[in-house]
Backbone:
């Protein structure tokens, strides 16, 4: 007897692709600065905080940094087909991670 069958809902857990140190445009979707008229800050951070009060950058401010390589769970994916002979599951939807990476698939209750 198989654990999974056609039409079941599952959760898939995996590690996202690591992108290394990235800027705010890629990491957070910032719009970026002006592209012409002598602008030197096309994809740079620009101003990051207030002046004298509070005199620091707020906690959880979106900043450049390491992006990706985190554990992510995608829930409620439907099993379209189960092939027992080949040990394959066909899922409808996207799963986290690169090709040929390991995934943990759990049945939704």
Residues:
């Amino acid at each position: 007897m198989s654990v999974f069958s056609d039409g079941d809902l599952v959760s898939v857990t995996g590690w996202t692709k690591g992108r290394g140190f990235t800027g705010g445009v890629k990491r957070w979707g910032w719009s970026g600065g002006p592209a012409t008229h002598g602008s030197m800050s096309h994809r740079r951070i620009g101003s990051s905080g207030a002046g004298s009060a509070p005199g620091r950058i707020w906690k959880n401010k979106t900043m450049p940094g390491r992006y990706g390589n985190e554990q992510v769970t995608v829930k409620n994916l439907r099993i379209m087909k189960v092939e027992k002979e080949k040990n394959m599951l066909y899922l409808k939807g996207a799963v986290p991670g690169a090709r040929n990476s390991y995934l943990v698939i759990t049945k939704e209750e």
